[in-house]
Amino acid sequence: METRERVGRTAPWSGQELRGMFTxxxxxxxxxxxxxxxxxxxxxxxxxxxxNMLLTMRSTMEEAYRASDRNASAVAQxxxxxxxxxxxxxxxxxxxxIFRGLARGLEGRKSFSGNxxxxxxxxxxxxxxxxxxxxxxxxxxxxxREASFAAQSACAQSDDLLSIMEATVKAARDSVANTPAxxxxxxxxxxVDAGGQGLYVVLEGVLQYLKGEVxxxxxxxxQVVPSSMPLVSKLPQLAAEREEPYGYCTExxxxxxxxxxxxxxxxxxDNKGQCLIVVGDESLVHIHIHTFDPGKIIQYATSLGTVHxxxxxxxxxxxxxxxxxxxxxxxxADIATVAxxxxxxxxxxFRSLGVTAIVPGGQTMNPSTRELLQAVESVPQDxxxxxxxxxxxxxxxxxxxxxxxxxxxxxxxETIPQGVTALLSFNYDADxxxxxxxxxxASLAVKTVEVTRAVRSTKIGDLKIKRKQxxxxxxxxxxxxxxxxxxxxxxxxxxxxxxxxxxITIYYGKNTRRSRAEEIVDRVRQQxxxxxxxxICGGQPHYHYIASVE
Amino acid sequence: xxxxxxxSASDIPAKVAKELGITIVPLYVRxxxxxxxxxxxxxxxxxxxxxxxxxxxxTTASPGPGEFAEVxxxxxxxxxxxxxxxxxxxxxxxxxxxxRGKEQMKRKCRVEVIxxxxxxxxxxxxxxxxxxxxxxxxxxxxxxxxxxEAIPKAHVYMCFDTLEYLRRGGRIGRGQALLGSxxxxxxxxxxxxxxxxxxxxxxxxxxxxxxxxxxxxxxTNIRDLAIEHATTPDEAEALAQRLDPIFPRERIYISTVDxxxxxxxxxxxxxxxxxxx
Lengths: 550, 277
What we know:
The complex is a heterodimer.
Chain A: E1 13-14, H1 15-39, H2 49-64, H3 72-86, H4 89-105, E2 111-112, H5 114-130, H6 140-157, H7 161-182, H8 184-189, H9 194-211, E3 248-256, H10 262-269, E4 274-280, E5 284-291, H11 294-302, E6 305-314, H12 315-329, E7 335-341, H13 344-352, E8 357-360, H14 369-378, E9 383-387, H15 391-403, E10 407-410, H16 416-424, H17 432-443, E11 447-453, E12 458-460, E13 463-465, E14 470-474, E15 477-482, H18 485-495, E16 503-508, H19 514-527, E17 532-537, E18 545-549
Parallel strand pairs in A: 7-8, 7-9, 9-10, 16-17
Antiparallel strand pairs in A: 1-2, 3-5, 3-6, 4-5, 11-14, 11-18, 12-13, 14-15, 16-18
Chain B: E1 3-7, H1 14-20, E2 22-25, E3 28-31, E4 34-37, H2 44-53, E5 59-61, H3 65-76, E6 81-86, H4 94-103, E7 110-115, H5 120-135, H6 140-150, E8 154-159, H7 164-169, E9 188-192, E10 195-200, H8 205-217, E11 222-229, H9 233-243, E12 253-256, H10 259-265, E13 270-276
Parallel strand pairs in B: 1-2, 1-6, 6-7, 11-12
Antiparallel strand pairs in B: 3-4, 3-5, 8-9, 8-13, 9-10, 11-13
């Protein structure tokens, strides 16, 4: 592997370096391919998206090393050819378009600048859209478009490829996180788009090369981008049998006897199946289609030229394998946990701690029994623990065990910190009863602080509260009032006995600035040097701050 | 007399090994292009210092079969029976390599290689018990039987304060469930059926050590007990003192976690290993 130690260097970049960038990207993708496979739900949940993209990249790089010349243009042309010949699957074919764009953008250049690269990426994104008759948003296409747009905007500030790629990768990440918002099937499955994730990993690999971090990569692994919206459950409906068959995924490369017209071929095949992608040029065209009659497609193709690299796969078989793969992967425990949570950050916290399903909700947004039941029924396990995480939701949650077809226990957590602590004490080896009591007991060991603003003026005990004033609670009990949430949080924390406590976690809310939260953290650290203080963007509505003391 | 062989992932203190005539084959740790035989060419102190200061992350490796063959051949000069007990085959290739080493021996000698399905002092205590048995005059079959019976009775609980090293490193089986936590936790793992397995994820080190204490206390019939640490001997000693009422302090082994394991769990690991009677 070619390694570059120089960081932040500027143009010109050579063909050899172009090769280095995508060689690094390929090894980076290789680590992520199995993860990407499990995300794969669109257009067909067959669990091979990561593998397909990897095979596409490999073919791309094999050609890159066969390039006749080491200049940028020749290497890019070779890569485009390799990508087209070796493209596999929807995302692979779309990925090949990015390389085709790159080849076009770099045509005739010995070397290239950041600007050239960004322009070439944009070209690739446009070509990717053109390859489909009906482009769908929330897929690799969206990620390609948004990432290349960010690349171009970054160009306006600097021609430095490293900073351009930093902006591009960040945009790709945001775009992947947003895919469930655009594509309902992803939302239902509780995943981000697999192809989009794959493209993000490729771009991130390029960035690592530019940063000179090729050596360190071996100890890291690409992370699956967390969704930007709460996801109800992870892949439950995939376990259900699908009645409608998927047909055959048919893919091949067509070498024309005469000049080929990709647009005409696309039109001609449009009603012959699903997920049609036709890419290429006058001499070589890659065709991908899901059809019930692969024979007809190939027959048509042979009338135009010779057919190569033919691949026909029964997608129903693939889907079955995929379900097996998911089943083997998903349930780590045979007991599921369902938590009521709102806020992007808090959702992420619960997910990271292994919660099976999340029902969005909380203070002033109590979910219905039906919503809770849906979540309970949607998880693959038949034993379920519900964490309501709010006093007002406990009663609703208590209806679930009676109504559900599964064995359900409610651990009556009244606050988010209680829910977190309960989840942390989940024991993989214990049964439902034992876990419920273990988690219930653990949840009582944490102190919860909440800070919000009063919705109306009132008087509670000795405290006179004006509307919109900040108010602080300890375990649900109102104890402080003040003008700013920070002031109240500080006052509440000071009033607690910190002797014997070890960790304070502060989750700041959606409408709270991180810098203000950081000031409080600094003060807490100064006041209580023995405590570990952790600040997390909870993103929760309603509460400016939620803190746990344990 | 049966001679005992193990690898450095057993964490047996050098003094104990010497007294009991246990041969310890060192594993390898590598920082970039520098390769060390652990505890021979690189002390644990130096290792943990490098682990926290070096920019390159260490990788670990097993000795080759030839090295095992050499060790066995050397011992064969003075004994006719060798028992070689190693770290779990589900965590490293050491066990397989030892088996191949046995095939490459030049001398004739009975060698039995056993997969302990454990590691660190879980393995260490098994080997110590075996060596004691051998000193009492048991033959190879008897010692090997005793070891096989002891394997399910060995327990190891390790707690550490960052997941960073596990994330970079690797093979932790169901311990995977602990990765990716958005909150700082002090995970506790045990080794069960040869693989790492999550036991708990308390928050805060004091709570984690309390948990270790509770786990050790849950056993009623303890034959041997060890406390292990990487860079925090005072903490290990304090825990040993606390455990004194359930197991006499003077019989508790205190040892340092081998770099080969330390590379995966980081410099603040602390653990309890015990062998039930």
